[in-house]
Design a protein that fits this description.
By secondary structure, the chain is mainly α. It is about 65% helix and about 10% strand. Keywords: DNA-binding.
Length: about 130
């Protein structure tokens, strides 16, 4: 160990700096969360008869089904599942944008997430992020 590592004042200064950095990160996260509306996601079907809302944790909080949609019972379940998938993708995109904003240039969060997406979702991801 070097003398620098044994200096209690230096260790205390480092701990205080780590605490300040952590508090800044939490503050930025809270601000970004509010700015980006990451608290919940809501998507509506093209015809407006189905609606899915995710909570701030990305879990399905509500599913809205219009009377008209009930008439197409055979296609109702697949349509709801597709809408849930779309909502989860939008949630993922928002969380990715927040993480990239928090990490800055230190890590390519967008690139990492993009690399894990199925091909059909990459196109949408690219369009939404101007890639």
């Amino acid at each position: 160990m070097t003398d620098r590592n044994r200096d209690p004042q230096e260790m205390l200064r480092r701990l205080e700096q780590m605490q300040a950095d952590a508090e800044q990160m939490i503050e930025r996260y809270n601000r970004l969360s509010e700015e980006m509306g990451a608290n919940e996601i809501e998507v509506v079907s093209d015809d407006g008869t189905l609606r899915v809302k995710l909570d701030s944790d990305g879990k399905v909080a509500q599913i809205g089904i219009d009377e008209y949609a009930m008439r197409a019972r055979q296609s109702l379940a697949p349509a709801i599942m597709m809408l849930i998938e779309q909502a989860k993708a939008e949630y993922g995109v928002k969380m990715t944008a927040m993480a990239q904003s928090l990490m800055g240039d230190r890590m390519d969060v967008m690139g990492i997430v993009r690399g894990t997406l199925p091909e059909h979702m990459r196109d949408r991801f690219d369009r939404e992020h101007g890639l």
